[in-house]
Amino acid sequence: MGQTDRKVLVALSGGVDSAVCVQLLREQGFTVSALVLRFSDAHDKAVAAARLAADQLGVPLTVRDCSDAFRREVIAPFCAEYCAGRTPNPCLVCNPRVKFRQLCEAADEMGIFFVASGHYARIAQEGEVFFPRRAVSEARDQSYMLYRLPQEMLRRLLLPVGEFEKPEIRRRAAALGLAAASAPDSQEICFIPDGDYPAYIERQGYHGAAGNFIAPDGTVLGPHKGVLRYTVGQRRGLGIALGRPVFVRRILPGGDILLGDAGEEFYAAVALNDLIERGAGLVPGERYEVKIRSAAKPVPCRVLRRTPDGVILVFDAPARAPAPGQAAVLYRGDLVVGGGPICEIFSEVPDPE
């Protein structure tokens, strides 16, 4: 098994992107096998769709149940983070700890070096270092989602879909007669199909910290429904009538929620912990672009200083509602060079020392 082998194992989800990924790799001369991961009961439809896609494409498919690992590594931390007043992105945890780990382990068992997925991203190499790289499609780019993948995964990973725009992928799927060609893109959290994450979390036996809403002037307005139902920047569903629009400015450690007026949702800087770095690492004073959530546009920033467990980033222009628990992912050009969860937000630029 080695990099010269022309065999690859594709993570097949049943969607259009991973299905076309199979065909693109075959066109590149690879012998393709497929793997579908069953993460939870909510994924049974995806497993069925993957079976259909594999049959239509004529590739061997392995079904691998990883529900125990998914519950331990993804669902439990997701629930705990929301209950602590943070806003997690479960895909960022799943990709290195479950999805790509299971994919690589299955490939090892089959004697296959290369693995692939239908992510809209690319892989770049500088010297001995591999980087996630932005996709050709700016609108579809998913390089943010791969920022935590370690070198041993990145060096094996093929991402052919990252070279295309979405309409071309759908056109190719239609030309192949694939059932997934017209399937809608998935928008919700994959293990919560109805999107009602507070109800899901409570069904798992978790309960968010209680507390009060605090008005912008410091007035205690009364109890909220538990911190798991709120996130920084949220305006709707607060049930607060102050005669003017307000939003969630901060979720305080004790469970109280500080509200803000329009204009106060912008922050000058953020602190990151649990840092991932590639290449030369993140250098104080250096400038980068940063995405503070998966759907955000990258914005210019600089590293103010390092901290014992991360860095502090200063935005060129104040950024709207960076939420603790979400990741800030840094780019040098097209390359993902680092990132980490947001652990603190600053209305003003902190002391550089």
Description of the molecule:
The protein has 353 residues and is an alpha/beta fold. It has helices spanning 16-27, 44-57, 67-83, 90-110, 151-154, 166-175, 197-203; strands at 7-11, 31-38, 61-65, 114-116, 122-126, 129-133, 157-158, 212-214, 220-223, 246-251, 257-261, 266-273, 276-277, 287-291, 299-307, 310-320, 327-332, 335-346. Helix 1 crosses helix 6 and helix 3 (67-83) packs antiparallel against helix 4. It is globular and about 65 Å long. The chain has seven helices and 18 strands. 24% of the residues lie in helices and 29% in strands.
**Continuous helix count:** 7
Give the topology string: H per helix, E per strand. Answer: EHEHEHHEEEHEHHEEEEEEEEEEE
* Uncertain spans: none
How far apart the termini lie comes to 50 Å
Concise summary:
With 353 residues, the chain is α/β, with parallel strands linked by helices. 24% of the residues lie in helices and 29% in strands.
Please give a handful of descriptors for the protein shown:
353 residues, alpha/beta, 7 helices
Write the layout of secondary structure elements.
Blueprint: E1 7-11, H1 16-27, E2 31-38, H2 44-57, E3 61-65, H3 67-83, H4 90-110, E4 114-116, E5 122-126, E6 129-133, H5 151-154, E7 157-158, H6 166-175, H7 197-203, E8 212-214, E9 220-223, E10 246-251, E11 257-261, E12 266-273, E13 276-277, E14 287-291, E15 299-307, E16 310-320, E17 327-332, E18 335-346
Parallel strand pairs: 1-2, 1-4, 2-3, 4-7, 8-11
Antiparallel strand pairs: 5-6, 8-9, 10-11, 12-16, 12-18, 13-18, 14-15, 14-17, 15-16, 17-18
Helix pairs in contact: 1-6, 3-4
